[in-house]
Amino acid sequence: MKERPHYLTIDYRSLGTISLAEFRQALLTDLAALQDELHVEFMTAPRLVIPITNEYGDPVRFNDLTNRSLTRIDTHHYRPACKDYDL
Questions:
Q1: Is the pLDDT of residue 75 over 80?
Q2: What mean pLDDT do residues 10-32 have?
Q3: φ/ψ (deg, to 5) at 59
Q4: Beta bridge partners of 53
Q5: Strand, coil or helix: what is 24?
Q6: For residues 24 and 70, what is the distance between their CA atoms, to the nearest angstrom?
Q7: Is residue 67 scored above 90 in pLDDT?
Q8: Which of 6, 17, 46, 80 is spaced 20 to 30 A from 55 at the CA atom?
């Protein structure tokens, strides 16, 4: 028997070039479906790769406020340590 993969890919290619606001809504909708329909409750080390373009789909380079080139950012989500210990 073939072993099932331990990951899931959600493909957004069919949406084409979309705004960040539209992507946010699509992502939240899909995460809710994962939880409600597929009963996914936890994940470890997820990664989101976002190809940055202009409204025509052409790649765009961008910099942070200090004019440094970026390719990776850490999440701004705060998770209390007590969640790790069920306190």
A1: no
A2: 93
A3: -60, 140
A4: 59
A5: helix
A6: 21
A7: no
A8: 46
**What is the torsional sign of CA 59, 63, 69, 72?**
negative
CB 63 within 8 A of CB 71: no
Residues 6+ apart with CB under 8 A from 15: 22, 23, 26
pLDDT of 33? 94
Q: pTM to 2 decimals? A: 0.74
Q: How far apart, in Å, are the Cα atoms of 83 and each of 71, 79, 80, 87? A: 30, 7, 6, 7
Q: Give the single-character DSSP code of 26.
A: H
Identify whether the C-beta of residue 10 lies closer than 8 Å to the C-beta of residue 24. no
**Distance, CA of 33 to CA of 23 (rounded, Å):** 15
Beta carbons within 10 angstroms of residue 30's beta carbon: 13
